[in-house]
Specification:
The two termini are 26 Å apart. The protein contains 14 helices and no strands. The protein is an all-alpha fold and 290 residues long. The radius of gyration is 19 Å and the shape is globular. Helices cover 79% and strands 0% of the residues. The mean pLDDT is 86. The chain has one domain.
């Protein structure tokens, strides 16, 4: 169990450092996101070949609609999130993206027939207050509205991805991620062509190196580390350890990129992450008692 937790923690740390490395890449954010999808899916394809495994075609056919839609949602999440990293601080972009669990909690009564509770309402209110503090929207200065909305757009894609994943049945984890990564890259491809048509893109060795690293290490390899513990860790551990990612993003933003949140931002970050964790635990307890 300790090794499973360690694998999952490493995956979360890798995910949490994506925004930091993206700052050192001089390529358009959508191009990097597209390469991430293609390289990540290629990594998993090589893994399949090395192990001599085959994909479960029956489950892929039965869940084809949700698989394709989930890949599109993942592509949308990446387009908005990577653009947000370029527009605002890594911490703000990451925390806006992590409003997704709160949105799921808010939509749960309509989507899954769950009942509202005082704790869930407080979680939603706490997260909204937190994101207001993090975004510094109360101040007329130093607020990047575009970056905030891009981060929230990423959260919307994240919500769609979660809903699609919950609608699938009996799809092997690696099969699902391979399709999602490939479809996400194909979703971003036309957007990248249209947005960068006629643009002069300067390519340097550092940007190429970091882009390849994000695709292979932070996507293909990290998703393997993320998926293997999924079937072995208790739900509570899986949910709680998942919030290492935004914490790492905030730390990287402050320590390596010198983008401090300030006192209000720190309080807001604690509210967002704390509310999301509390909401996750409430959902887990509700499922266990059902």
């Amino acid at each position: 169990m300790t090794s499973m937790k360690l694998m999952y923690i490493v995956a979360m740390v890798l995910f949490g450092t994506i925004g930091m490395f993206l700052r050192y890449i001089g390529l358009p954010s959508d191009l990097v996101a597209m390469c991430r999808g293609f390289l990540g899916s290629a990594f998993i394809a090589v893994l399949y070949l090395a192990k001599g495994k085959r994909m479960d075609r029956k489950s892929l056919r039965e869940n084809g609609k949700y698989l394709v839609l989930s890949g599109v949602m993942l592509g949308i999440n990446w387009i908005f999130l990577f653009a947000a990293y370029k527009q605002t601080s890594v911490a703000v972009a990451s925390l806006c993206n992590y409003m997704a669990p709160i949105v799921i909690i808010a939509l749960a009564p309509a989507l899954y027939g769950d009942n509202w509770s005082v704790k869930r309402v407080l979680c939603v209110i706490g997260a909204v207050i937190g994101i207001i503090l993090v975004s510094n929207v109360m101040s007329a200065e130093n607020v990047n509205t575009k970056g905030i909305f891009l981060g929230l757009g990423a959260a919307a894609g994240f919500v769609g991805l979660v809903i699609c994943n919950r609608s699938m049945k009996d799809v092997p984890a690696l099969d699902r991620v391979f399709v999602q990564l490939l479809v996400s890259a194909l979703t971003i491809l036309p957007y990248t062509i249209i947005v960068n048509r006629g643009a002069h893109i300067e390519v340097d060795a550092l940007s190429i190196g970091f882009t390849i690293m994000l695709g292979i290490v932070h996507t293909g390899f990290a998703y393997c580390l993320y998926l293997i513990p999924m079937a072995n860790l208790p739900v509570q551990s899986f949910a709680l350890l998942g919030y290492i990612e935004p914490v790492v993003s905030v730390i990287c933003s402050a320590v390596f990129l010198h983008e401090p949140l300030g006192i209000a931002g720190v309080i807001g970050a604690i509210l967002v992450i704390g509310s999301a964790i509390a909401g996750e635990m409430t959902s887990i307890k509700a499922e266990e008692s059902a």
